Amino acid sequence: MHFSTRAIHDGQEPEATTGAVNVPVFLTSTYAQESVGVVKFADYARGDNPTRAALEAVLASLEDAEFAVAFSSGLSAVDAVLRTLQPGQRVMMSTDAYGGTYRMLTNVFGSWGLRTDIVDLSDLEAVASSWVDGTAMVWAETPSNPFLRIVDIAALAELAHARGAQLVVDNTFATPYLQTPLTLGADVVVHSTTKYLGGHSDVIGGAVVTNDAVLAERVKFLQYAVGAIPGPLDCYLVMRGIRTLGVRMDRHQENAERVVAFLSGHVDVERVWYPGLASHPNHDVAAKQMSGFGGMVSVEVSGGAARAKWFVERTRLFTLAESLGGVESLIEVPASMTHLSTGGTLLEVPGNLVRLSVGIEDAADLVEDLRQALA
Ligand SMILES: *Cc1c(COP(=O)(O)O)cnc(C)c1O
Asked: I need a labelling partner for 356 at 20 to 30 A (CA). Which of 49, 106, 164, 252 fits?
């Protein structure tokens, strides 16, 4: 089956006893046992919940994977993957990444004994030449946050595997609609389902997806043993979002192209970062491994940080807010908002950078809003 058919049907068959077309939200913490230790579905809802199982089934299907494990946030999914490592091992991550992942690696797992090396993962020669023994995991985001850099997943997987390391891809920005990293050779996919998968800015969630049975079992164990599970209503909301992912993503991209065309010609915009632009440094790799370029756009405005602040405070439709991937357009200044924790590090971003999550409103209204805000 094709993508949107799977998004709407996989894991979501009509409910057996009533025929309800939606997966029920199973609000239960425990399950009656038929006799001691004999259970119908599970013994306790931290371990298993049918609504969560349905979400995990559709997530696995969309990533062309065997296993998906849902979490209460993107960061708890990241946490579970990092917990599969041992103290003393190293993680290589990019110069351009979600600030929270960097913060977890350094401020949480640093004292636990993980070492983090920062390398521009879109530069494969740099990855090879700066490789340190003991690197067990390469952590890539593509498109990355906030510069929308592209990492060649197949080439990086080969390079990591040749050195005995696993490749994790945070697929939050692309979603499985635009790219399936596991089919390109990655070992693990991580998601913040809070973003495009949920799609309506009404839920926080995360997921780990893989074909590696041993790793999946460990992550499933961590979901149970550490306990960062998503509630059943949250699982339902993510699943409802997933059902329209294809149509939403098409519109996000169409609108992003209109916004990019407008901003590229604007006198007060120094540079537009969008993987669909031929001028983007990794455009060829993006065109090779993605079926579209997504709905995220970053721009550097002239006039520095003060002008960036002025710009984002004057939009009327684009809401000044962190996060991304919802139906409504959002705008933010990474240096003082989402990426504040990277200040003074190799991941620091310039103050004149503005990140836009282009929503699915009418493109003409979005362009007009940006025009008046920049005027
Ligand atoms: C938001 C985000 C996360 C963290 O997810 P939460 O759901 O906020 O915990 C991780 N990676 C990327 C790329 C994100 O955008």
From this structure: 106
pLDDT at 338 over 90: no
Q: How many Cβ atoms sit within 10 Å of the Cβ of residue 86? A: 10
CA of 241 to the centre of ligand 1 (A): 16
Q: Name the residue at shortest CA distance from atom 8 of ligand 1.
A: 74
362: Cβ contacts below 8 Å, ≥ 6 apart: none
Query: Which of 148, 171, 195, 235 for a ligand 1 pocket mutation test, highest count of atoms within 8 Å of Cβ?
Result: 195
Quick one: 97 and 202 in the same domain?
yes
The whole domain housing 218 covers 3-243
Please indicate, yes or no, whether residues 74 and 172 belong to a single structural domain of this protein.
Answer: yes
Q: For residue 271, which phi and psi values (nearest 5 degrees)? A: -155, 140
Q: Do 65 and 155 fall into the same domain?
A: yes
CATH of the domain at 68: 3.40.640.10
pLDDT of residue 346: 80
**Are 202 and 259 in a shared domain?**
no
Which stretch of DSSP H or E encloses residue 54? helix 50-62
Statement to judge: residues 356 and 239 lie in one domain: no
Listing from the earlier edge strand, what are the strands of the sheet with 296-301?
269-273, 296-301, 353-357, 330-332, 319-320
Q: Tell me: do 292 and 355 sit in the same domain.
A: yes
Regarding whether 172 and 315 lie in a shared domain, the answer is: no
Distance of CA 228 from the midpoint of ligand 1 (Å): 15
Q: Which of the listed residues 194, 324, 341 should we mutate to test ligand 1's pocket, taking the one with most ligand atoms within 8 A of CB?
A: 194
Say if residue 256 is in the same domain as residue 338: yes
Counted domains in the chain: 2
Per-residue confidence band for 111, with pLDDT thresholds at 50, 70 and 90: very high
Separation of alpha carbons 282 and 279, rounded Å: 8
Q: Is the CB of 248 under 6 A from ligand 1?
A: no
Higher pLDDT, 348 or 224: 224
Q: What is the pTM of this model?
A: 0.97
